[in-house]
């Protein structure tokens, strides 16, 4: 099983079913965007950016999932059984899911070493920022890392794990790939939309500071471009996995950044339960 197809110029057919939905983009700005992950000091806004929505077609990619590639479109999809019983149990996630995902990533990428460094559970119904680490779906078009912060985060996480020869390791090609899945019933509310990396211009990606209490990260906000092509996998369930390439050190024509966002699905039932999902973030190293 591999999602790294090297044919980089084949277009995805647009003869697919789709929904039309509003996606939220950053309005171009002169200063660097800043977003706080917590309530900032009095007088400082949570974000200095302004955003606008654009109603766009989002194509159902289920029928073409076998033809989608991490190295071409920047995302991928596969069926994958998990033995995790409770994804809200952090210990079980690390003990059971991390090894499952590590093996899965090696299979789908051809990578020789995988280091999982982060996970996020999302459920708007259970999210209580001051009481737990459960988050709400992120409903702005974004990419988790930039050309700079891919390396910065790698150095930080590898050093924290006592890994030797970090400089040598980062001279190899490596990618940061998210593994995303439903953790309860099939997703109806706030599914994830993914933008074909080939439709994103470099000028659409705007580096911004993501401020934590103990550090400052950097992510890409995204400005609107009519060329963007969006896809999703409706009704995802817990035995399916979605892969999102958020960074690739290779600059050789392969996809490097896959913009994505949660969105309000107009076909979602009014009484649909809140989306329950988990994403793991992992470094995938390749032999040169």
UniProtKB/TrEMBL annotation:
InterPro entries in alphabetical order: AsaB-like (IPR044053)
MF-aspect GO terms: methyltransferase activity; oxidoreductase activity
Gene Ontology BP annotations: methylation
Record bears the keyword ATP-binding: no
Keywords: Methyltransferase, Transferase
Transferase keyword on record: yes
Domain of life: Bacteria
Name of the protein this chain belongs to: Methyltransferase
Source organism per UniProt: Dendronalium phyllosphericum CENA369
């Amino acid at each position: 099983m591999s999602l790294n197809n090297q044919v980089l110029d084949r277009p995805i057919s647009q003869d697919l079913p789709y929904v039309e939905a509003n996606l939220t983009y950053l309005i171009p700005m002169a200063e660097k965007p800043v977003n706080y992950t917590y309530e900032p000091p009095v007088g400082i806004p949570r974000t200095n950016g302004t955003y606008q929505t654009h109603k766009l077609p989002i194509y159902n990619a289920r029928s073409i999932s076998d033809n989608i590639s991490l190295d071409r479109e920047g995302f991928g999809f596969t069926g994958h059984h998990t033995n995790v019983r409770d994804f809200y149990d952090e210990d079980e996630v690390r003990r059971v899911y991390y090894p499952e995902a590590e093996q899965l990533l090696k299979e789908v990428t051809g990578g020789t070493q995988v280091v999982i460094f982060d996970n996020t559970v999302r459920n708007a119904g259970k999210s209580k920022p001051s009481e737990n680490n459960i988050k709400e779906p992120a409903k702005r078009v974004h990419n988790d890392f930039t050309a700079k912060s891919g390396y910065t985060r790698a150095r930080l996480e590898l050093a924290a794990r006592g890994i030797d020869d970090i400089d040598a390791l980062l001279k190899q090609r490596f990618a940061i790939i998210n593994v995303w899945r439903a953790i309860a019933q099939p997703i109806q509310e706030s599914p994830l939309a993914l933008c074909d990396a080939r439709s994103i211009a470099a000028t659409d990606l705007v580096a911004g500071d993501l401020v934590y209490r103990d550090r400052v990260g950097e992510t890409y906000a995204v400005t609107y471009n009519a060329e963007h092509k969006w896809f999703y996998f409706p009704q995802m369930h817990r035995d399916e996995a979605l892969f999102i390439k958020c960074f690739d050190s290779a600059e050789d024509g392969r996809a490097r950044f896959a913009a994505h966002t949660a969105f309000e699905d107009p076909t979602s039932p009014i009484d649909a339960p809140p989306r329950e999902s988990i994403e793991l973030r992992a470094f995938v190293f390749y032999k040169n």
